[in-house]
Amino acid sequence: MPMLSFRRFLAAGTATLLALLVAPPGRATAAAPEPAYYDVTSTSTFTTTAGLAADLTRRGYDVLEGPLTRAVPILATAAEAQRLRARGLSVRYAGPLHQPVATTWLAAANTYYGGYHTTAGHEAHNQAVVAAHPDTAVLRTIGQSWLKTQGTGGHDIQALCITKIRAGDCATTTTGTKPKFTLMAQMHARELATGELAYMWIDYLVNNYGKVAAVTTLMDTTELWVIPIANPDGVDIVSSNSTRPISQRKNAHTNGCSGTGKGVDLNRNSSYHWDVNQGTRCSETYPGASAASEPETRGIQSFLSSIYRDTKPAADFSPATTGTTGTFLTLHSYSELNIFPYGWTNNLAPNNADLRTIANAMAKANKYDVVHGDGGLNYFAPGATDDWIYGTLGVPGYTIEVGPSGSSCGGFFPQYSCMSTFWNLNLPAFMALATAAARPYPTGK
């Protein structure tokens, strides 16, 4: 894993900066072992790839999403791969972590790695959108990043409400007249394509009201909320090297670990089925010291609870009512999957038929596989946000895993030119899920 040392600001009556938490975009970070993608198989010790995946996860390896048909995909350094070979496992190099960035490319302000936007870039964009479109966009602060709660920099977590604004719209209340659709991105900081898709979704909506009939109808009838960057501190770390982004998944919570071991996995930290056994402190899936321990998690959960009505009994397998309104989508990468509840168990959710119907409509657009539970993945995801919003509020929660596992458009750091393909595939899926917000459970099954 890339190793990057950070120090905190010294606050002792002086503003002298002893060390930067992250280098400014464009400045190269210290040399570190370069991770790459590998496929791991076993012909003797493990009889199934699922068993091998579980063992690698327990040992702290960065086990990745993907079907277990042939091998377990991991992100590892060459030294880590060699240690696995020494255990008698077969380890095949599958590709580099980074794609080349043209030497002629000059980073525009608040961009990195060919055009992706930094946290500051998203914040400037949010401000520009509401200034240019006061009749269709409202910007709200819904929480704070871990560093900001410590008084050492950090960011507010921002959400845009996009709709044709009428009296009472975009208020943080469950009694509004319009159903809500929320798209959230970059909870895992290294998943670059997700934040960029949120940026593009915002522009598509505000620039096409009154021009594209489907957009106009949607904005007249629905509040479209967007959380472009759910993990802003993590994105600062990722973008600290403008041509070879840092593979930071978690937030920036200081936990005694170095490099990308720092932090908490926000997508294991929700207060629904939080599981202490998801990972040790330095592992990529470390769920935190307790459920909703992180300020990012608390802010997002509080915000979502303030705009969606609770229509589901507390019991896991009691269905939400047919009067439920609203839908929710969290973007992750990669593996080309549309995931619907539940992700913490293979048991069917009580609204399974209606949940799957919406997922199938999304798949008709983006051509990604439809799965739930551990289907298509190497692990369950207890404590994930999509399960939290369905399990606690009854709102249909979905995850799209954007992008393939191979080629220059694969992995966590696809070439920026791939964004047009991702956008064309997923825009109709976003529209399908947003449209379903008015009545997501027509059958109640």
From TrEMBL:
Keywords, comma-separated and alphabetical: Hydrolase, Metal-binding, Metalloprotease, Protease, Signal, Zinc
InterPro entries to which the protein is assigned, alphabetical: CARBOXYPEPT_ZN_2, Peptidase_M14, TAT_signal
Names of the cofactor(s): Zn(2+)
Ranges of residues in domain Peptidase M14: 115-437
Compositional bias annotation for Polar residues: 241-257
Alphabetical list of Pfam families matching this protein: Peptidase_M14 (PF00246)
Signal peptide per UniProt: 1-30
Active-site residues per Swiss-Prot or TrEMBL entry: 401
Entry annotated with the keyword Protease: yes
Entry superkingdom: Bacteria
Positions of the UniProt region annotated as Disordered: 241-260
Family statement: Belongs to the peptidase M14 family.
Official protein name in the record: Peptidase M14 domain-containing protein
